[in-house]
């Protein structure tokens, strides 16, 4: 560490939701957020403030990872961002222009790292795979992890990947071939972050509240850094003479990596529930941390760059007044057994030691500062944010299920006497799609679709999706005919009843048939008539899909049920147009 301790340098408030990704180069800072945006920040030399200079916008869901990439001749530089929309976007770092959109992963992009070769990067995903991209094309997919991949890192010995299966794997990659070179076993929970320590060593952090130091070539764990964080550790980065980690306890811990005991050098509490990501700034003399309140906070050991005394006092007051979730000290707290304020006169044993103090009916959290030789108030203990709601919306803490994080994990009772089934759901998901995915995964009757979707809507505060967003299966999709249901009108579009058995079905008649007016519910021949089914048909004045001259692929469809419905229809049409068994099999 350059100085005695890190002090607040600046606070950046430019995002409307959690800052989930962060990186930097020699002159600029880059942030990605749940607000779907990534931003570039540069220091104004006049007053040492960080000014927003570019916005990178292309994702349809929140940004979860980012990294920097060098071009072949070094004349250009790119920034890559990964998202819950399952894509990686490549932007020109200086203009903000979208250069490439990379698809291939089947779930959230949870980790990105630039490679030493030009126009290359490695990505990790909730789909349990790792992909190597060269010249922005997928050259290799690595499959070995049994759970979501949360961290990726290039080293002298190969590619490191960390996963929710508790493993770190070293991959040996040659051309388009990748093999497992070594497994690093030791963490007791999901591995969330990786960082270089030296050519021979690296660091890993985990939901087990620890950071581990590993020898890359030997595969051995040489040190475990623990006793600092009280909850999940989300990210780790090297600084000048030490390293920093951040996590779910809303704090940054500074560790002396080269001391024999791996001492905790400093603890910095933040006025937020979670510190999601961290990166070095100014060649490791400073660091920036992305927080759950949409804020980026920058700290420095250089007094000349530190914020004014007044700004630092405001920051400390925000920390002292922040309501900490009960998880910082365990799930159950017996208030009556806690010591009073007089116990603050007893010195702490080590940096970052946590003490709970009872003041009336409230409980306050204090951390011991070895530098200041006193207990520092870091917030009030309250119920976990999962239990707090604002207008039906939960707090920022996520619920963990099978190594992934969700806004909700519901218990769904499908059958009386049978155990409930877990239904994970994020507020950014479409309730109908989540319900259909749940039904397919557990092989449930499609008749449950509307019931499950409505359950999600009622219990998550989500709004029912009414906009037509893509091709949907008319037989098994969310907009299919449901027996007994009334016609539904959405977006001024008439949803058709069953074209085969409903009241508006086609019935052959003699004589002239008056053609229905546009928008009329009097349907002609459902197969060839003007009112026949057209995929995702909506009112012609508002449709973005018609007229349709090309084939449309259904992303979600049950082929057996479609065939069954077609076969049923074939039995009801006039004999002159009915297909015999041989012709039906050909179709």
Explain what you see.
The model is unreliable at 384-396, 465-507, 509-524 and 535-545 (pLDDT under 50). By secondary structure, the protein is mainly β. The chain is built from five helices and 40 strands. The strands form twelve sheets. The protein has a four-stranded antiparallel β-sheet. The radius of gyration is 28 Å and the shape is globular. Helix 2 packs across helix 3. Helices cover 9% and strands 39% of the residues.
Brief overview:
The chain is mostly beta strands and 587 residues long.
List keywords for this structure.
single chain; 587 residues; mainly beta; four-stranded antiparallel beta sheet; 5 helices; 40 strands; 9% helix; 39% strand
């Amino acid at each position: 560490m350059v100085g005695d301790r890190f002090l607040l340098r600046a606070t950046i408030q430019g995002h409307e939701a959690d800052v989930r990704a962060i990186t930097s180069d020699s002159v600029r800072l880059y942030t990605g957020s749940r607000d779907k945006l990534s931003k570039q920040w540069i220091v104004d030399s006049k007053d040492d403030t960080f000014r927003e200079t570019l916005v990178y916008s292309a994702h349809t869901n929140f940004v979860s990872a980012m990294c920097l990439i060098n071009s072949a001749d070094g004349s250009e530089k790119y920034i890559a961002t990964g998202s819950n929309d399952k894509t990686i976007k490549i932007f020109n770092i200086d203009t903000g222009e979208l250069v490439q959109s990379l698809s291939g992963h089947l779930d959230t992009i949870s980790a990105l790292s630039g490679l030493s070769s030009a126009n290359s990067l490695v990505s990790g995903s909730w789909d349990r795979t790792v992909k190597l991209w060269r010249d922005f094309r997928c050259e290799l997919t690595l499959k070995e992890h049994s759970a979501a991949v949360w961290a990726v890192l290039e080293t002298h010995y190969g590619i490191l990947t960390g996963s929710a299966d508790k493993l770190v794997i070293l991959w040996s990659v040659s051309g388009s071939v990748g093999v497992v070179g070594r497994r690093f076993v030791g963490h007791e929970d999901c591995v969330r972050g990786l960082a270089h320590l030296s050519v021979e060593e690296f660091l890993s952090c985990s939901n087990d509240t620890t950071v581990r130091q590993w020898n890359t070539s030997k595969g051995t764990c040489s040190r475990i850094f623990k006793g600092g964080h009280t909850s999940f550790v989300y990210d780790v980065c090297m600084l000048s003479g030490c390293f920093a980690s951040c996590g779910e306890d809303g704090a940054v811990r500074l560790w002396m990596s080269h001391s024999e005991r791996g001492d905790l050098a400093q603890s910095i509490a933040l006025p937020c529930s979670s510190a999601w990501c961290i990166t070095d700034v100014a060649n490791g003399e400073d660091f920036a941390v992305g927080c759950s309140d949409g804020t980026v906070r920058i700290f420095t050991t250089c007094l000349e760059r530190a914020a004014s005394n007044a700004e630092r006092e405001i920051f400390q007051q925000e920390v002292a007044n922040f309501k900490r979730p009960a998880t910082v000290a365990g799930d159950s707290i017996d208030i009556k057994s806690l010591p009073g304020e007089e116990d603050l006169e007893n010195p702490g044993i080590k940096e970052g030691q946590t003490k709970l103090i009872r003041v009336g009916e409230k409980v306050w959290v204090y951390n011991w500062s070895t530098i200041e030789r006193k207990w520092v108030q870091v917030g009030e203990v309250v119920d976990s944010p999962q239990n707090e709601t604002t207008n039906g919306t939960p707090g920022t803490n996520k619920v963990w299920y099978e190594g992934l994080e969700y806004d909700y994990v519901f218990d769904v009772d499908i059958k009386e006497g049978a155990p409930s089934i877990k239904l994970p759901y994020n507020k950014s998901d479409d309730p109908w799609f989540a319900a259909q995915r749940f039904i397919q995964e557990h092989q449930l009757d499609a008749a449950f679709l509307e019931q499950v979707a409505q359950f999600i809507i009622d219990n998550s505060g989500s709004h029912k999706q009414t906009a037509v967003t893509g091709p949907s299966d008319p037989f098994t999709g969310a907009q299919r005919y449901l027996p007994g249901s009334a016609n539904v009108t959405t977006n001024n579009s008439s949803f058709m009843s069953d074209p085969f058995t409903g009241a508006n079905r086609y019935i052959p008649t003699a004589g002239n048939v008056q053609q229905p007016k546009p928008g009329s519910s009097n349907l002609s021949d459902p197969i060839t008539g003007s009112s026949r089914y057209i995929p995702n048909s909506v009112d012609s004045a508002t449709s973005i899909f018609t007229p349709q001259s090309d084939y449309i692929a259904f992303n979600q469809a049950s082929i057996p049920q479609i065939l069954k419905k077609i076969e049923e229809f074939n039995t009801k049409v006039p004999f002159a147009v009915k297909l015999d068994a041989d012709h039906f099999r050909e179709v």
